[in-house]
Amino acid sequence: MKKAHFLQSLILLVAVVFVFAGVGIVAPRNAEALSGGEFNASRIIDDPVFFNPSTMLPSDIQAFLNAKLPACDTNGTQPYGGTTRGAYGASRGYPPPYTCLKDYVQTIPGVGADAYCGGSIGAGTKTAAQIIYEVGQACGVSQKVLLVLLQKEQGLVTDDWPWSVQYTKATGMGCPDSALGTDVDSNQNGCYDEYEGFFKQIYYGARQYQRYAKQASLFNYKAGQNNYIQYNPNAGCGGSNVVIQNQATAGLYNYTPYQPNAAALANLYGSGDSCSAYGNRNFWRLYNDWFGTTYTTVPFAWSYEGQWAYVDASRTSQFTGIPTVAPNGKFYVRVKARNMGNQTWESSFLNIGVSRPIDRASSYADGTWVSNSRAARLLETSVAPGQIGTFEFAIQAPSTPGTYSEYFNLVAEGRTWLNDLGLIFLFNVTTPGEAAVTNATLSAGQSLSRDDFLLSTDRNSVLTLRGDGDLVLYSNGLVPWHTGAFDRTGSRLVMQADGNLVLYNGSGQALWNTETGGNPNARLVLQTDGNLVLYSVSNVPLWASYSISVPDNLSYTNITLPPNGRMYPGQVFSTADRRYKLIMQTDGNLVLYSPSRAIWASGTDGKQTAFVAMQSDGNLVLYERGGRPLWYTGTANRPNLRLVIQQDGNLVMYNPTAQAIWNTQTAGAQ
Fold this sequence. Notes:
The protein is an alpha+beta fold. The chain is built from ten helices and 43 strands. Strands 10, 13, 14, 17, 18 and 19 form a six-stranded mixed beta sheet that branches. Strands 20-29-30-31 form a four-stranded antiparallel beta sheet, with no helix packed on it. A four-stranded antiparallel beta sheet has the order 21-26-27-28, with no helix packed on it. 43% of the residues are buried.
């Protein structure tokens, strides 16, 4: 007896309402009201619904999974096939314990952006909900679609005793039906090795739908043309011609290349006949039952695809960090937005305008704007639903140093303002700082041990050999370059007399080097442009990290310590007008200064402070050399907080939704 597949089981219906970002609130369908006659083989799901990466937050996904499966039969104690589930699973090679999707946790590798998934995913130990969210964000696919895909393929959402093999082939990606039961991989799981495992299944499954869209000519089923689609793998069962209306539907057919026949649609929650196939029927049915219609329901809506700021009008030199310009300067921006409505955008009527409030004149309007309240027209002539449009314009800075911001939103002129997603450009207007005397150079014969560092003369960049053995360059709170931790064995960085820069472990074994031997008395310099350069005695560059900051850091002021960012002794963060300063002092004290006095301090003076870290868990911690914490804010378990020194003198920690979590209560202090 085989473990019952979810397709033969009734689906638990839970009346939960979720928000589609940008397309309003859509209630799930009542199963009894959904009929096979509503299935449209040409239009299974609309592009704006499918390719919407912001439909659910991790908390939404977790709540959904908990609601679908309140309890898990972890130990397999429930009866099954004349015995217990645990005994039956063990007889098939899958003994308990069983982990349900709502409780699933996996340690995943980091994945960089590529041509198909434009966002990166960080390494770490993450819940299934977090993985689903991050993959959706990185690959531009709805988290709701990914949940339906997991259920359609392996029933993972509602299975209360899933076997490990169901996670191995969670979305069926790289697990061809024709190869089931054969050795297509070293583990004999029916999936190719490179696709095995929950994270890889989710990631490469979502990525594949982007491949279908971006390399459509390589695949069998294409939008906008007639396609012959079979009812079943058995060609004798026949099929019909289908004019596929959009890319998402074409992608579903490329992933599962069959359409439901009349028998499958007549018994929407059960089986059809010997010629029936159920994959795309079940996708459509599950989505409707769980999340509502698969069709876009509003004319004009958008979702955020990205924003960028550049130094130059040709948009080739991108700012590193917050855009920073001189008084009366300007910078150039690009915004990308996905059409989430059911109407095509036209450049004749779709603009990006100033918002919060709408229709006001902006103080930062450039002479190239359409008007002082409309920054730019849609760059493309037209953008169909589900596709991405572009807006480009300049922002004119005021004459007074400070931190400024402007909100923007899309407007269909003469029709409506679109949903307001809070698109904001934050920028600093500042004057160049002065170079300080720091240890910015590692000369021949000198070395760095763990927790030692070089500090650039602008005090915005640090090169340090961290306690985990990784040689890391921090510039404006970010990490543009590092060597890797080499299993945490890095112990000493040496600028050798022969000109080679070498990282050694504790046993004297070389782990990394610049391969610049033969250049006696070369030196390593951490420059004010954020670049780490190794120079010969005649000032010829021999090696570089190529981590140049834009603008040069002497013209930049740090106001934000991002998640995973650090400050080292001697570093200074300040407001754009340089009135308030946060200094990690060499005496071990972290101090916030007004123009006239110290207004807040960590009280750690006299300690051997190594650095202060804005940890990814939300805690701001001062560490001494060796890794012992000296002081902390007590804000752990609030991921991705950032520390901001505000123009009013308050030091504030914000969460990703701009909610203040902690502050020094120093606003307005003189």
